[in-house]
Design brief:
alpha/beta, seven-stranded mixed β-sheet, six-stranded parallel β-sheet, 28% helix, globular
Length: 334
């Protein structure tokens, strides 16, 4: 079977399409899945570029969706022909977070989904949302579930709340769609006026070009009448001060991304005066993904896929991600 691997030293030029042995039939508690689609995340890019060191020959991609080809003894949740999607933390089934690293994350600590077939525990998957193709389904594993947990699970989002989103990548656009479906008002930033127009078409209520408005945090606070209820903070240290300026007293900031770096100063006095809850998070549990799937089926939301690449074009797909020209998700289709 085909598998895309990352050979040492990591880099786009060392992504190799190889032949790997077929994984065979599933054992007890396992299912065999023909992988048909994936999507790219900043985390995947870090692995492929070597920013997040992984084993030589690692198969990348944390997201994977496809069709069940066989089920092992004792598996009752899935049947042959079911459409399934992977879990970012295959061992975190439910409850509060118990995992603080990526040692068991596909495409990082273990092999990912840039391959034709996988045999894994059934508990490493959920059902795909009805009506989703494989690429659409794959977008919920990392970006979609991150946005869902930030706003709904941790943030307790309710109708009438105000939300600030940074940029127009996968997490932010998913968060825009979730927030609007739940009756929230949404502000979103970008350096591209064209992308902001696309965000408006998806329902964004207030848009702001952060290159033109250096004090965008204050602008968002003014728009929302004193500060937003929720901030989905994907930037990191370079944007956190503005996010604190934008949030209301007693509001909630979900610290998700490190696009501007992995460390930096935190304006502690400003955070204290806002009495805001600053919460770090990494994706979510299998149970939260199952809840998210039910919500998607109830609302009819479909993810925004900017472009689709073939598995043989994975290097080109990552190069496109590095250009930061995409809006929403970048798909990979078999």
């Amino acid at each position: 079977m085909r598998a895309m691997t990352v050979r040492a030293p990591a880099g786009l030029e060392n992504l190799k399409l190889e032949d790997r042995a077929d994984p065979g039939q599933p054992g007890p508690g396992e299912i065999r899945v023909a992988v048909q689609g994936s999507s790219l995340n900043f985390h995947d890019l870090g692995v492929v570029l070597g920013r997040m060191p992984s084993d030589d020959g690692r198969i990348p991609l944390a997201d994977g969706a496809g069709v069940v080809e066989a089920v092992g003894e004792g598996v009752h949740e899935f049947a042959v022909g079911d459409h399934v999607v992977s879990c970012f933390f295959p061992d975190w089934q439910d409850g509060t977070p118990t995992i603080g690293d990526f040692s068991r994350t596909p495409g990082d600590g273990i092999d990912g989904f840039a391959q034709d077939v996988v045999v894994l525990p059934a508990t490493a998957f959920t059902q795909s949302p009805r009506g989703y193709d494989a690429v659409e389904a794959a977008t919920i594993t990392t970006a979609g579930l991150t946005a869902w947990r930030a706003l709904v699970v941790d943030g307790k989002l309710k109708a009438g709340d105000t939300v600030l989103l940074l940029g127009t990548g996968g997490v932010s656009i998913w968060a825009l769609q979730i927030a609007k479906a739940m009756g929230a008002r949404v502000a979103i930033t970008s350096s591209s006026d064209e992308k902001l127009e696309r965000a408006k078409a998806l329902g964004a209520d207030f848009t702001l070009n952060y290159r033109e408005q250096a004090d965008w945090g204050a602008q968002v606070a003014e728009w929302s009448g004193g500060g937003v209820d929720h901030v989905v903070e994907v930037g990191g240290p370079g944007t956190l001060a503005q996010s604190i300026a934008a949030v209301r007293v007693g509001g909630h900031i979900s610290l998700i991304g490190v696009l501007t770096g992995g460390a930096g100063e935190v304006p502690t006095a400003a955070l204290m005066s806002k009495q805001a809850r600053l919460q770090g998070l990494i994706v979510g549990s299998r149970r939260e993904q199952q809840d998210f799937v039910r919500a998607l089926e109830a609302t009819g939301i479909k993810p925004v896929i900017d472009r689709r690449f073939g598995i043989e074009q994975l290097g080109d797909a990552f190069a496109y991600e590095m250009s930061a020209g995409h809006f929403g998700k970048i798909g990979v289709a078999w």
